[in-house]
């Protein structure tokens, strides 16, 4: 653990050097002028309130929606400025209104462009209240798509029970889009069922708008994979400690011998472009070994050193969260952790033959557990989004079942991973 802490302490200053992620892009000012430069691309789980723009002469300036009409940042992010009214109701279960709320508030915001079509464009606005969606006909202003969810007492409607009240859903957005197609019967190739099955989320609305535009559905977010498969291998050192009330089965701490591991898994990205937060699912096999020693008297009352050997092999499934605190495009430094659920098999668990005098003595071994839950931590470096080198540490975890003896193991590993996309 000291090695892990030391490495973390040495690398933490890097997090202060690059909290920005400038990508090529441009802004369009309200005058219509286009200025090229670099824009600081963030996670933007909610729409940005401003952007940091670096011009060709390396001067930086912050722009808000009132200052620009739109901006673009590579690889494929476009935001447009919108000044108008936005809905104020809550429609994301379980945070829904107690009654129908049709109030709106004035706002000047950036809308994220999801689709720019010859007929219709689709935009998204997500803030701390809820996600909203807007459509736009060519030459006109964006219009918000309306969706209501609220509790209601009239049981004659088609609703879902929720305690003493009833949860009502009003999909006005379906009617809004359907009305557009009736005005323009030559638009797209779609059916009434396409509208009826469209839920109020980005994926469904995007699919419907693309059908209205006569386009094929495009998979993936901005051309970037949302998941990544990898394989890996590494060297592992295990440390076993003994805590016991019985001196007859007490050993000093185990000295480690190098073991090894192989792994495969999937990385899921919160944002496929920035890849700052990674949700990881890893399947691994590890092969560990070690020896413990103690001084004792043999049958001839002569001092000898007795050797306890353990070989532990296990497979584990580990969900983890990885955070790139240094997040440049081709170099990322991360910390992470998770939970590992392991199934264990022990090929050695006892006194080695050469420690027993003429085979006449026998010493009790330990009842080791088959199923063990572990807590892994890691400090890693990712190069070119494909190669990762990580130092990991698994917190000490109990591996035996006896009450009088506590046998715990911790592991330190150096693992190399290679991703295929």
From TrEMBL:
<dbReference type="InterPro" id="IPR011250">
    <property type="entry name" value="OMP/PagP_B-barrel"/>
</dbReference>
<protein>
    <submittedName>
        <fullName>PorT family protein</fullName>
    </submittedName>
</protein>
<keyword id="KW-0732">Signal</keyword>
<dbReference type="InterPro" id="IPR025665">
    <property type="entry name" value="Beta-barrel_OMP_2"/>
</dbReference>
<feature type="signal peptide">
    <location>
        <begin position="1"/>
        <end position="18"/>
    </location>
</feature>
<dbReference type="Pfam" id="PF13568">
    <property type="entry name" value="OMP_b-brl_2"/>
</dbReference>
<feature type="domain" description="Outer membrane protein beta-barrel">
    <location>
        <begin position="229"/>
        <end position="394"/>
    </location>
</feature>
